[in-house]
Design a protein that fits this description.
The protein contains four helices and five strands, in the order ααβαββαββ. By secondary structure, it is α/β, with parallel strands linked by helices. It has a five-stranded mixed beta sheet with strand order 2-1-5-3-4, covered by helices on one side.
């Protein structure tokens, strides 16, 4: 009995080859559909999101204005204006980044803008990543003007500093990195 081990029966291989080709074709069609649907979703966001078409925005605005009783009213008050001239505002400058001379350089800029310097010291921490301006109660306008003059975007009431630590200053500049 002579049995050849190298003999391949083509009739057994053909159905598997055909099945593999069909499976690859189905996978390619599914991939194409996923790419098309994904692209459509990315290109055109859902209508319920913030990017509604102009027609829908206009309709929503018209509906809100046609029923004033259902419309929420937001009262925004303008921040108070500075009452004191710059030369009457005393500023405490604190080094909040740990670099030697940073507070002194900032104090020179503050002084150059016309403010009085009430002191130059190290802050309690040295990990401030951005500079901030804080103001005492009743001096919000002066604090906001100081921040504007120095190009500092973070402004708020005193936080973490007691009034006794201000040495009479109306505002504080903490120099960040």
């Amino acid at each position: 009995m002579d049995v050849s081990l190298h003999h391949h029966d083509e009739s057994l291989i053909r159905p598997w080859r055909l099945a593999a080709i069909i499976a690859a074709g189905v996978a390619a069609v599914e991939l194409l559909l996923l790419v098309v649907v994904g692209g459509a979703l990315i290109a055109k966001p859902a209508k319920s999101g913030p990017h509604r078409p102009a027609k829908e925005k206009a309709a929503a605005t018209a509906q809100a204005t046609s029923h004033p009783a259902t419309r929420a009213t937001i009262h925004r008050t303008a921040p108070p204006a500075a009452k004191l001239v710059r030369r009457k505002v005393t500023v405490l400058v604190l080094n909040g980044n740990g670099r030697q001379g940073a507070a002194a350089a900032a104090a020179a800029r503050v002084s150059h803008r016309g403010y009085r310097i009430g002191g130059v010291e190290n802050a309690g921490r040295t990990d401030f990543t951005r500079s901030i301006v804080m103001y005492r109660r009743g001096f919000e306008g002066e604090g906001r003007r100081l921040a504007h003059d120095l190009g500092i975007g973070i402004v708020g009431p005193l936080d973490g500093i007691k009034t006794a630590q201000l040495h009479g200053a109306n505002a504080v500049v903490v120099v960040g990195a």
